[in-house]
Specification:
The protein is of the alpha+beta class. Helix content is about 45%, strand content about 25%. The protein is elongated. The protein starts with a strand and ends with a helix.
Length: about 240
């Protein structure tokens, strides 16, 4: 491997190394739990006398060696530790300028990656903020901080029964009537609607700024990840101490 890398190259390499190393270690760990693989024997039968029964030899080979298992662990983790240290050392130098509106802030790649995920959550949050009903005319009430509509009058009605004359009375028959129900206005509601939502255009403006910031963060992170760093080694020193 080359002695110099760009951080984005290290990150890409590390993903593959992690997957391979963790796979190897998982396999080794399973083998280590099967002690029978580490044991073997040779059995030779000798009869008591020449007339005795003859039996064939038996043997079982040792298929796993503890030293080889430790060496395999050493090799796998040395590669992983070295690439991880190289990446983490590069992260200490991976800094880029982030443009936020008219301001500029320096930030490391690790923070920019964190910020990207946070912006995605902020976008989801703002998307769920309710907006004012466009069917109404809203005005901001500076006293309450709420939006409100103009007052409107609505009728309050009450059902009232009254007789309906079907046939007038005559000298021979009484009047015929039927009770009917009518909605009669008994009062008025003076209604003013209030809302704690925000205007749709304000929500759209916030979402536009979120999208612009997301682009700036991604651009800054990619620039920070172009920083060059030298390959770092720790695995040999570490495992020389552990497994000496």
């Amino acid at each position: 491997m080359s002695n110099e890398y760009k951080l984005n190259q290290i990150i890409a390499i590390e993903k593959g190394v992690k997957a391979r190393v963790y796979g190897n270690i998982t396999t080794l760990h399973k083998y280590n739990q099967k002690s029978d693989l580490f044991n073997g024997f040779n059995k030779n039968y000798q009869s008591k006398d020449e007339e005795g029964e003859k039996l064939p030899s038996e043997n079982k080979k040792v298929t796993m060696r503890a030293d080889e298992s430790l060496n395999a662990l050493n090799k796998s983790l040395t590669e992983l530790f070295d690439i991880t240290l190289t990446k983490d050392m590069a992260n200490t130098k991976a800094i880029a300028e982030l443009k936020i509106g008219d301001s500029t802030v320096e930030a490391p790649a690790t923070f920019l990656l964190f910020l990207e995920k946070q912006i995605a959550d902020i976008r989801t949050f703002v998307n769920n903020i309710p907006v004012l009903d466009n069917a109404e005319d809203w005005n901001k009430d500076d006293n309450t901080g709420l939006y409100k509509t103009s007052s409107t009058l609505t009728h309050r009605t009450k059902k009232v029964q009254r007789p309906l004359v079907l046939y007038d009375a005559t000298d021979k028959h009484p009047a015929q009537t039927q009770l009917i129900t009518e909605d009669v206005t008994v009062g008025y509601w003076n209604v003013t609607k209030q809302s704690g939502a925000i205007p749709e255009n304000r929500k759209n403006e916030i979402l536009e700024r979120i999208e612009e910031l997301a682009k700036q963060v991604k651009s800054a992170r990619e620039k920070a990840n172009m920083v060059e760093t030298e390959n770092k080694e720790i695995g040999y020193t570490l495992f020389s101490y552990l497994f000496k």
